[in-house]
From TrEMBL:
<dbReference type="InterPro" id="IPR001466">
    <property type="entry name" value="Beta-lactam-related"/>
</dbReference>
<keyword id="KW-0378">Hydrolase</keyword>
<dbReference type="InterPro" id="IPR012338">
    <property type="entry name" value="Beta-lactam/transpept-like"/>
</dbReference>
<feature type="domain" description="Beta-lactamase-related">
    <location>
        <begin position="22"/>
        <end position="396"/>
    </location>
</feature>
<dbReference type="InterPro" id="IPR050789">
    <property type="entry name" value="Diverse_Enzym_Activities"/>
</dbReference>
<dbReference type="GO" id="GO:0016787">
    <property type="term" value="F:hydrolase activity"/>
</dbReference>
<protein>
    <submittedName>
        <fullName>Serine hydrolase domain-containing protein</fullName>
        <ecNumber>3.-.-.-</ecNumber>
    </submittedName>
</protein>
<dbReference type="Pfam" id="PF00144">
    <property type="entry name" value="Beta-lactamase"/>
</dbReference>
Length: 410
């Protein structure tokens, strides 16, 4: 185990002995063979109160998790793409109520699934256009093929959208194919986790006139000093990339999932704004600190503070939570007491989910069990990195909250 603290936790209101429970608890997952390794960072008021690593980034090679380990962050890409879109919004390039078809005309005649099997679905016209705020809030009616919950999910898989996209498709081609598939529901009428942020990434390209990777690098990653965040890992850094694992359904012991994990070692055919980035704890820490500070870090301002506050309020109609507004129940979050903003889940009431947190806390996670949260009330951020598919295997995120908030004493 490696533990490094850059400040005195007592001064930040944490009990050091209670913070040590984090390493003891999550260390057991590794010792029992249920995780290969992990990295955790907890901060308060912009200072690191706890930073630790444990286990191996690659069990087979015997290489340990180190501070500069590279992690597939998957859906933790979504908040970065959402910030990119809102940077353009701040420039007056669009309004949140604008139809997406203004920039992506392939969505002009969207249709909605009504009934029938995958082989012969019956659809109806969309009652209103997909708007940009629908993409940011996952209320557009788009889905994921790998969810395997609805007939529309099956139509996505039939079109080549599962954990990947149709072979050779770039972001432009993938988006055009998605636009031809029926929506799961009428835009704005429900919430469903899906490819909305990938379409949003294409929108960023068209509005800005630049490829998504170029825009993110020039406007977000390089200005924030996120120099290790990238779309794939070249050979010189391949050894730093953590291996991807999945649990044996009988024993719970992890096994290597190279069939999925090796994709991070080659340039992708498409730039997934919803799940394509690889990053480090240090880089994503800088992203969360920018959010905590209201859109600015070290003199670099990406967003205005009112924009960040606006993004991290619940935007679901009627102030509803995900439990009452989601048909499938599939997400990188619990649903009870949780709203959704412009790119983030937002805590409305921590009691229904039975997990300690602050009202107004916002967060997200990735399918390999990574997670982050930003608590503007307590001025706390937390990061969890590991590489275990799927993220629902263990309650790692809720357990980290238990351990962090029980260690906060002031």
């Amino acid at each position: 185990m490696s533990v490094a603290r850059s400040t005195d936790p007592d001064r930040l209101g944490f009990d050091p002995a209670r913070l040590a429970r984090i390493d003891q608890h999550f260390g057991r997952y590794v010792d029992e063979g249920r995780l290969a390794g992990w990295q955790i960072v907890v901060t308060r008021r912009g200072e690191i109160a706890h930073s630790s690593t444990y286990g191996l980034r690659d069990r087979e090679a015997g290489t340990p998790v180190e501070p500069d380990t590279l992690w597939r962050i998957y859906s933790m890409t979504k908040p970065i793409t959402s910030v990119a879109a809102m940077m353009l919004w701040e420039e007056g390039r669009f309004e949140l109520t604008d139809p997406v078809s203004r920039w992506l005309p392939e969505f002009a005649d969207a249709r909605v699934y009504d009934r029938g099997p995958v082989t012969s679905p019956y659809t109806v016209p969309a009652a209103e256009p997909i708007r940009i705020w629908h993409l940011l809030t996952h209320t557009a009616g788009l889905t994921y093929g790998f969810a395997q919950v609805s007939v529309v999910d099956g139509l996505y898989r039939a079109a080549g959208f599962d954990l990947t996209v149709p072979a050779g498709a770039d972001l432009t081609a993938a988006t055009r194919t998605l636009a031809r598939l029926p929506l799961l529901f009428q835009p704005g009428s429900s919430w469903n986790y899906g490819v909305s942020t990938d379409v949003l990434g294409r929108l960023v390209e068209v509005v800005s006139g630049r490829r998504l990777d170029q825009f993110l690098t020039d406007r977000i990653l390089r200005p924030l000093g996120m120099t290790d965040t990238r779309w794939w890992v070249d050979e010189p850094d391949a050894e730093r990339l953590a291996a991807l694992y999945a649990p044996n359904p009988t024993t719970g012991q992890v096994f290597r999932a190279d069939s999925i994990g090796r994709a991070a070692l080659t340039e992708p055919s498409w730039l997934s704004g919803g799940g394509g980035l690889v990053s480090t704890a240090a880089d994503y820490h800088r992203f969360t600190q920018m959010l905590l500070r209201g859109g600015e870090l070290d003199g670099v301002r990406l967003l205005g503070p009112r924009t960040v506050r606006f993004m991290t309020r619940n935007h679901l109609p009627g102030g509803r939570d995900l439990a009452s507004f989601s048909p499938s129940g599939f997400a990188e979050t619990v649903l009870e007491g949780i709203g959704f903003g412009l790119g983030f889940a937002v805590v409305q009431d921590p009691v229904p989910a039975r997990v300690p947190s602050s009202v107004g806390e916002y967060y997200w996670g990735g399918m390999a069990s990574t997670a982050f949260w930003v608590d503007p009330v307590e001025e706390v951020t937390a990061l969890l990195f590991t590489q275990l598919l799927p993220s629902s295997t263990y309650p790692l995120r809720s357990q980290l909250r238990q351990l962090v908030y029980s260690a906060l004493l002031d």
